[in-house]
Amino acid sequence: MLKGRHLIDSQDLTVRELKSIFDLTTEIINRPKDFSYICDGKILGTLFYEPSTRTKFSFEAAMLRLGGKILGFSEPGSSSVSKGENLPDTLRTVGTYADIIALRHPKEGAPRYGAMYSPVPIINAGDGGHQHPTQTLADIYTILQVKERLDNLTIGLCGDLKFGRTVHSLIKAMTRYDNVKLVLISPKELKVPENIKIEVLESKGIEYLEVEKLEDVIDILDVLYMTRVQKERFFNEADYIRLKDSYILDLKKLEPAKEDLAILHPLPRVNEIKMEVDDDKRAYYFQQVKNGMYVRMALIIKLLGVD
Amino acid sequence: MLRINSIRKGIVIDHIKPGYGMKIYEYLKLQDANFTVALIMNAISRKYGRKDMIKIENVIDLDLAMLGFIDPKITVNIIEDEVIKEKINLSLPDRIEGVIECKNPRCITSEEREIVHKFVLIDKEKAIYKCEYCDHIYQGR
Ligand SMILES: [Zn+2]
Q1: B108 at interface of A, judged by CB pairs closer than 8 A
Q2: Both B83 and B127 in a single domain?
Q3: Could you tell me which residues come within 8 angstroms of residue A143 by beta carbon, excluding any fewer than 6 positions away?
Q4: Which in A116, A288, A305, B71 has the greatest CB count within 10 A?
Q5: What is the tens place of the pLDDT at every residue in A16-59?
Q6: A109 contacts in B (CB within 8 Å)?
């Protein structure tokens, strides 16, 4: 049962629970009209302590398409939060108005902390460089749609693997399927953090490879997950300038890749995938965006228990 | 040398790294105790050169789980009738609350007032903990 639960970490959902969300997602895609009033009378609170128009729109569109309503803020400067209210008080207050809350926060672990006090389900909509589990739902659903399986895959993760929260969530979730191999492609400064290596890769005995160059491994991949090298994650400008162009995907780099490679990206992109790649049949990142809204619809339905 | 009488009944926490005696004293809240406590600092140790010690009289049921985290070399003896009745093997606690702080500058614990720092043991052999909020690693030893 998912009713009343929080979604903080992508591992909070079992493989079976993920499947139930994906089955519902497919139903929604096939018969959207059947779901357009299912959340009538329900309110989604969107508390965005840092701006992220894309994720906020995706959550809001999801709730509106289910017939529910929304309230929230997109920058703490415009709310009582700027007067120094603590997170537990904000969530206890908003939790009396809203039936479910999507929480985006620049500090890592904020959703876990908030969930300890919230009277209604909290969905982590991204916390610092830590986790972004609803993006992971979109990522995995897209892989399932394209590959028709979630096991026996070699998945390349490329770019900022240190602060890339979508990468952390995806690794945690995908390593639960059989025979999933990971190829971690990043500059040495931006490798996957130690806690993921200890807790996920080593403890589960996952086969993984760490490399610096995309060109060296692109031919062995079934899925290529590109990420943005974000400027604000760097501690200094010089490092950013030195590294930002090292991991750009273009048609030339794609030449040796498999015919049925699936290229994914959590978006927004800066320049890590050239626009010329958009028309390649292996590019699935716009489909992934659309899936993001549908999986959020399914998740909201499940957590509210209105299915 | 300063002499502290041996105790008839109680706990002797021995072989504490010099300087850590006060920390343990505070952690166990011995300043609020209504029983006799002796904190001995910089005593001469045959094994380690110098050491701190704590002797607690008449009490044998303190929660000592955290001592293994502070320093696994610490020894704990339970004394009854002036003899060592039990030597306690210290092990790492599964959870630590309100003792150590998360070192991740991006962690929510760096921002929220009154938040309790919480850690979970993820690797017993290597004494590795993670922050319950942000998953950041804390190396115990
Ligand atoms: Zn932390």
Answers
A1: yes
A2: no
A3: A150, A153, A174, A223, A262, A264
A4: A288
A5: 999 999 999 999 999 999 999 999 999 999 999 999 999 999 99
A6: 107-109, 131-135
